[in-house]
Write a structure and sequence with these properties.
With 134 residues, the protein is of the alpha+beta class. It is built from three helices and eight strands. Strands 4, 5, 6, 7 and 8 form a five-stranded antiparallel sheet that branches. The model has no long low-confidence stretch (mean pLDDT 94).
């Protein structure tokens, strides 16, 4: 089955996994999703992101280990896809969005790779606003 928006599918799987209190979530592998998962691990929203090879070696999957706080409270309280295939949202370096006044992160796809809004501001590059995480 072909997905129209694989990034939104990844975010939805994470959101549903957190709601159902799963330990891990499996997502079809791509370089973009791996970069986003690495950012979420670095920022402390996920425990780990591991690439699991397919037995045929075709695509493989990305195994995301979800992170919870005390009493199984969610570390991620919100995920939102911003730029979609039908409506792309771009931001210049001086107009990058702040999520909850800096408490969350915006994931930006720039010419220098996928990075957080803070790193993009430091490197003075703009790009496509992929998602907000808080």
């Amino acid at each position: 089955m072909a997905l129209t928006d694989p990034i939104a599918d990844m975010l939805t799987r994470i959101r549903n996994g957190l709601t159902a209190r799963h330990e891990t979530v499996s997502v079809p592998m791509s370089a973009t999703k791996k970069a986003i998962a690495d950012i979420l691990v670095t920022e402390g929203y996920l425990k780990s992101a591991t690439v699991v090879a397919d037995e045929k070696g075709i695509q493989g999957s990305l195994l995301l280990e979800l992170k919870y706080g005390e009493n199984y409270s969610k570390v991620i309280s919100g995920l939102r896809r911003i730029s979609r295939p039908g409506l792309r949202i771009y931001a210049r370096a001086d107009r990058l969005p702040k999520v909850l006044n800096g408490l969350g992160i915006a994931i930006i796809s720039t010419s220098k790779g996928i990075m957080t809004d803070k790193k993009a501001r430091a490197e003075k590059v703009g790009g496509e606003v992929l998602a907000y995480i808080w």
